[in-house]
Amino acid sequence: MAGHEITDRIADLIDEEHRLRTGALHHGGLTPDDRARLKDLERQLDAAVDLLHRRQALSVFDDE
C-alpha cells in the first residue's frame, strides 16, 4: 500500500469515526453495534498510523 493510499484510508476511518461520534451526540449515545464499530475503527486507525510511520521511517533510511 502506497503512502497516499494509507493517508486516504486514515482519512476515511476518521470520517466514519466522526460520523459515529456526532450521531451519538445527537441520538443519545452509541448503540452496542456502534460501540463495537468504534473499537474496530480505533484498532484500524492505530494499525494504519503505525504502518504510515513505518513507511515514513523506511523512506528516510532509503534516501541515505
Describe what this molecule looks like in 3D.
This protein has 64 residues and is mainly α. The chain is 86% helix and 0% strand. The protein has 2 helices and no strands. It has helices spanning 3-26, 32-62. The radius of gyration is 15 Å and the shape is elongated. The two termini are 22 Å apart.
Unreliable spans: none
Cα-based radius of gyration, to the nearest Å: 15 Å
Structural class: mainly alpha
SSE order, one letter for each helix or strand: HH
Keywords:
2 helices; mainly alpha; 0% strand; elongated; 64 residues
Layout of helices and strands:
Elements: H1 3-26, H2 32-62
Helix pairs in contact: 1-2
Summary, kept brief:
This protein is an all-alpha fold and 64 residues long. Helices cover 86% and strands 0% of the residues.
